[in-house]
Amino acid sequence: MIEPKTTLLDKRAKRNREIAIRVNDYELAEIKKRNRENTVASWLRGLALGVTPVKPVDPELVRQLGRIGSNLNQLTKHVNTEKQVDAEVFSEIKAIREQLHVLIETSIEYSKVAARDSDDC
């Protein structure tokens, strides 16, 4: 019996296949506006293959979230060691909650500004 020839798929192989799609003027403009890659082809390929697009993030926001996480870890260690929540720990938790609220609001505003800036492109 003759075995059928199988082709090994290699994601590093040269791209020699073409896919064509038709879009109207509005769709083309939207695709170009949303594209964050060097080319539309690389962006669409990434989307089709499951690459999650990454939006820009404010580095200061990331640093502040790291600090808050560190504070929460310290509070958790204290509570687990002391087996109780005293007034100082409670006030720290309340302060962290307020910091998170401010960061969330800041992040929302940052996202709105970034979205407006990308709409202008």
Explain what this protein looks like in three dimensions.
The chain is an all-alpha fold and 121 residues long. The chain folds into two domains: 19-54, no CATH class; 59-115. The chain has helices at residues 25-34, 40-48, 59-82, 87-120. The model has no long low-confidence stretch (mean pLDDT 82).
What descriptors fit this protein?
mainly alpha, 4 helices, 64% helix
- Report the biggest beta sheet as strand number plus sense, adding barrel if it closes: none
Helix content: 55-70%
Round the Cα radius of gyration to an integer and report it: 25 Å
Low-pLDDT stretches are none
Label the structural class: mainly alpha
- % residues in beta strands: under 5%
Helical segment count: 4
Short description:
With 121 residues, this protein is mainly alpha-helical. Helix content is 64%, strand content 0%. The protein is built from four helices and no strands.
